[in-house]
Amino acid sequence: xxxxxxxxxxxxxxxxxxxxxxxxxxxxxxxxxxxxxxxxxxxxxxxxxxxxxxxxxxxxxxxxxxxxxxxxxxxxxxxxxxxxxxxxxxxxxxxxxxxxxxxxxxxxxxxxxxxxxxxxxxxxxxxxxxxxxxxxxxxxxxxxxxxxxxxxxxxxxxxxxxxxxxxxxxxxxxxxxxxxxxxxxxxxxxxxxxxxxxxxxxxxxxxxxxxxxxxxxxxxxxxxxxxxxxxxxxxxxxxxxxxxxxxxxxxxxxxxxxxxxxxxxxxxxxxxxxxxxxxxxxxxxx
Length: 286
Known about the structure:
The chain is an all-alpha fold. Helices cover 81% and strands 0% of the residues. It has one domain (13-24, 33-285). It has helices at residues 2-9, 12-30, 33-36, 41-56, 61-70, 75-99, 104-130, 139-160, 172-192, 196-206, 211-236, 242-285.
């Protein structure tokens, strides 16, 4: 019995890392070793992207999309592969963030935010994937400048106007705006694999919502959104490179598992500054 109790004391990130390694070992049985050695660097890519994504609430597409396009992936293949990897990384991050929310009233509030935001985000994603196949403007350019502008504004606000105590509640007007913003965030996510988490985190931070709760909510919503976005790429357009997913997802699980602990270690002010810079990087990279 003592041996069993010891197993339950092992931190969740360790379990996720072990499962990730088992995942890689199984993959070696599926593919020849010499072929697999060409893909090892995708593990590091997955760790990097998921660590930042789950520390800030913004999706890992900020890293994946530019990296895949540099490697010669088509836009559709970059999008589908990025969304598939994020299913693993953001889900791992969600599990760890959930384990850190101990107050029932806080958990209820965050789940309310997540339920509203995810519902409208998924609606925006599915509407875009199946009905809005063409746009009249370049959504990547629009989101690029959105990220740069609000990243700078957020950084200025944090440095010069961040002296008030954080809020731990939201009004009905806030929830209404979250629904609208999440719908458009879902549309953006369907096009470039990042958007809704960043927009939700931005709004909550501007409203001075407690920073770790804001990041946790953004991670939850992003995880749900990408899970609903992937079936289109599996069944309709078949745009996912599964060998890349095999490796990157194993790294993403590790990154997602350790990210909440990094966010907690950074503390409120440094975490906000990290989020500001990460949003700026998103705008520059996209």
